[in-house]
Design goal:
Chain lengths: ~325, ~325
């Protein structure tokens, strides 16, 4: 019943979604005039078309780009390529010839196997995925419902809540380290420790004011006529949320999701503090612990496995990532 | 649904709504309860894990918590203890040194890279992906990986490379002079990609008509960079500067995993000191000191946050 007029309004809504993140311009810098901020072409950049016709300029620019590419590959990617090679090299060869490009004594695929089974990297990887998934779910729930209340439903207390969110946005996370820890160990009212429970990671992850605020700003830019139309068609606030607002917010949901996942994957200090049972720890907390007890080759294999998932995830969802990082300049918690 | 949400478009109706007497029943009828249910996840999560701990930290900084159960009010004693701790000036100095080095290494590189990348016509996505990959690597992995690179023996990765040109071997992480720069190089490698993307997004916003006009006037490439690109990036450069200062002031993982603050406290940072107060020896006894120092750091950083807020405001209202 509600889908037809979404389709009818698609044209008007397209300008919203195709621009990716529509952030209101008056408060924040935004990605302007561009359908795709990453791969689009400028009409004219620094070098004018007439300059382009001169061979010297062309060669100069070409050479600079080649240099840039080489620098990016050697410096940016180099350490990871080294990791990939070392992960399948026998430990002795890593020690003796760390920069050898060949395998003097053959490749040691057993490193990966040992890391996966004996060091239990597979188990810790599953822990990490479980932690990331829960944090993602909590973050998305809080951000979408919160953004919906603050942007669309707008009760009287919305202003106060928005102001309080802005305060937390500019508060460095460290201030909360100790009180949050106490909250987990001995929460008021409940008096039951959440130590070693994944809830201790999932729930605090939801308190990200950055998420709520970019979600609210995205909702602010959805066409209001659409909400009105839905309301006239008899949709209540719940229906409006699930059938209109959420389906129209896919780009921002993508951005928030990839960042929620990757942030939790990278997290170290908090899971390290609240998950002290080694069986429950994510891979990033386990790695420093196993560093001393494992053969170098096997340890490097474990590290390789730990970073393959986020790298592959990034390559798949590149657009959401790069779009979202551009936003990092706008607001960052 | 409350008429308030559409109030902006129908001022007449909204006024009627306000004039009506409000009882719990009318509140529920007008959708107040549904709205509250929608607001509940946000209110509960932020209340428990953001707002309440914020207030709590102020109290904690003036209490002693020897065993996590009893709390004794000690006034400003915790602050006094922290200020007179001989480790504090060392930590502050080291953190400032880290931030300074990070600015020297890490601030110009992403800017130059982004300006160059913005001129790439084909496969620009490929370039930005390359620059961004280190950012998605878990910090623990990059620190532990670079720890291998910094191996102090002759066959360490960096020592091998330097050996080719007959330099070294250096002790890297166990050298008092080189430990901190070594940490900064790793942290720059891990974080520069994010800044590159921020600059790229801003560079795309630079008005191409300005470049056209400058070309017509016969401006050289350098003049264009200096007089058009840079002034338009001023806002975003200030923002990345402040974000970087806020970030580096809270540096923890690098000193913790690389050196544990050593050698000879040369890499002890403020954040590491906070961690040591709180969880270093016996958990709990130093919570007061830790919160006191966190509050002091937060107050210092709030200053930068204010500048940031002003900067983003004035910049976008251009």
């Amino acid at each position: 019943m509600i889908t037809p007029w979404i389709r009818r309004h698609r044209k008007s809504s397209k300008s919203v979604s195709s621009q990716g993140l529509m952030l209101p311009g008056h408060r924040m810098p935004r990605i302007r005039r561009r359908r795709n901020p990453v791969s689009g072409l400028t009409n004219q950049g620094l070098i004018s078309p007439s300059d382009w016709k001169r061979p010297s300029v062309r060669w100069g620019v070409g050479a600079t780009h080649m240099l840039l590419l080489v620098a990016l590959v050697v410096i940016g990617l180099g350490p990871l390529l080294w990791l990939a090679k070392a992960a399948i090299t026998p430990t002795n060869d890593i020690f003796n010839h760390p920069l050898s490009l060949t395998f003097a004594h053959g490749a040691a695929w057993s490193n990966l196997r040992t890391a996966w089974s004996t060091v239990q990297v597979g188990h810790y990887l599953l822990n990490t995925i479980e932690i990331c998934f829960g944090s993602w779910l909590v973050q998305l729930t809080v951000a979408t419902t919160g953004g919906y209340v603050l942007s669309v439903l707008r009760p009287r207390y919305a202003r106060v809540v928005t102001a309080m969110l802005l305060v937390t946005l500019f508060l460095p996370a460290i201030v909360l380290l100790v009180p949050l820890y106490l909250m987990i160990v001995n929460p008021p009212l409940i008096h039951h420790s959440f130590m070693n429970s994944y809830w201790a990671v999932w729930l605090p992850a939801g308190a990200s004011s950055f998420n709520v605020i970019i979600m609210k700003r995205f909702f602010d830019n959805l066409p209001r006529e659409l909400f009105e139309a839905a309301r006239i068609d008899g949709a209540g606030p719940v229906r409006l949320f699930f059938s209109v607002v959420l389906p129209m917010s896919k780009p921002i949901l993508g951005v928030v999701s990839v960042f929620a996942f990757i942030a939790e994957w990278k997290n170290f200090l908090w899971p390290f503090l609240v998950l002290q049972d080694p069986n429950k720890q994510p891979i990033s907390v386990r790695l420093p612990a196993i560093a001393g007890q494992t053969q170098l080759g096997v340890f490097l294999a474990a590290m390789l496995i730990a970073c393959i998932v986020p790298i592959v995830g990034f390559l798949i969802f590149q657009r959401s990532f790069l779009r979202g990082s551009g936003l990092g300049g706008a607001i960052k918690g | 649904m409350s008429a308030g949400s559409l109030g902006a478009t129908e001022p007449g109706r909204a006024r009627v709504h306000y004039r009506r007497r409000r009882t719990p029943v009318t509140w529920v009828r007008s959708g107040g309860l549904t709205t509250l249910l929608f607001a509940l996840p946000l209110l509960l999560i932020f209340g428990a894990f953001s707002w309440y701990p914020m207030v709590r930290s102020v109290f904690l900084s003036m209490e002693m918590t020897p065993n996590l159960v009893t709390y004794t009010w000690v006034g400003l004693d915790n602050f006094r203890y922290v200020i007179h701790d001989p480790l504090l000036p060392i930590a502050v100095k080291n953190t400032a040194y880290f931030a300074f080095l990070a600015l020297i290494f890490g601030y110009p590189i992403p800017l130059v890279a982004a300006v160059l990348m913005s001129e790439v016509r084909r496969h620009r996505g490929f370039y930005s992906a390359l620059a961004y990959i280190p950012v998605v690597v878990p910090p623990v992995v990059s620190v532990l990986l670079w720890k291998e690179f910094y191996d102090g023996s002759v066959t360490g990765v960096f020592n091998t490379i330097l050996g080719w040109v007959h330099m070294g071997p250096y002790a890297w992480l166990s050298s008092q002079q080189m430990a901190m720069p070594a940490l900064v190089v790793e942290s720059t490698w891990a974080n520069a990609g994010g800044t590159v993307i921020i600059y790229l997004a801003a560079l795309i916003g630079v008005n191409s008509e300005l470049y056209e006009a400058a070309s017509v006037d016969g401006a050289s490439l350098w003049r264009k960079v200096w007089h058009i690109t840079m002034p338009q990036l001023r806002g975003v450069m200030l923002v990345t500067l402040i974000l970087q200062i806020i970030g580096t002031a809270q540096v923890f993982l690098e000193p913790y995993l690389f050196t544990q603050g050593g050698p000879n406290n040369k890499t002890l940072t403020v954040m590491l000191l906070i961690y040591q107060y709180a969880f270093g020896s016996s958990v709990g006894s130093g919570f007061g000191y830790a919160t006191a120092l966190s509050l002091m750091l937060a107050a210092f950083l709030a200053l930068f946050s204010l500048i940031y807020l002003r900067a983003t405001r004035s910049w976008s209202s251009e």
